[in-house]
Amino acid sequence: MNRSPDPRCLCATVRRAGRLLNRRFEEALRPAGVSPSQFELMMTLRAAGATDQAALVRLLETDQTTLSRNLKLLLDRRWIETAQDEQDARRRSYRITRPGHEVLRKGLRGWKLAHGEMEERLGAPISELWPLLDRVLQAARGPGSSYLGRGSV
After folding, report:
1. 3-state secondary structure string, the chain?
2. What pTM, to 2 d.p., does this model score?
3. What are the per-10-residue average pLDDT scores of the chain (153 residues)?
4. Architecture (CATH level 2) of domain 10-122
5. Could you tell me the residue ranges of all domains in the chain?
């Protein structure tokens, strides 16, 4: 059986699609030694520049515990580093290191291949999918939430 008992369940379908996409991108990023969640975090830091943890929670729309765990892994691997926040000396910001940029460079090769493969399998320009995904994200955030837009990857 390829479907859940109720194929019209948005949550189940989106979760399943997410797991399958995650597996495909795990395979694509494996040669670079980085996971999809680590890659997303590093790409977000690359796009945003030095960023504190509270801002990263908002940008990634994740929880503090998950983010802390991923930051620790990246710090241990020396792919990111902390620096004193330029606007508030009590805060720490995170930024990508030279080895981290190298990991991103290697990871981008696999990411581009997987992304292109998915676009080909979908049979239409992936750009047509973004408006619908943006609507799903906005609906999931609920009324009154501020729109943050797509991630940086």
Report:
1. CCCCCCCCCHHHHHHHHHHHHHHHHHHHHHHHCCCHHHHHHHHHHHHHCCEEHHHHHHHHCCCHHHHHHHHHHHHHCCCEEEEECCCCCCCEEEEECHHHHHHHHHHHHHHHHHHHHHHHHHCCCHHHCHHHHHHHHHHHHCCCCCCCCCCCC
2. 0.83
3. 66 91 97 96 96 94 94 98 82 94 97 92 82 89 62 41
4. Orthogonal Bundle (1.10)
5. 10-122
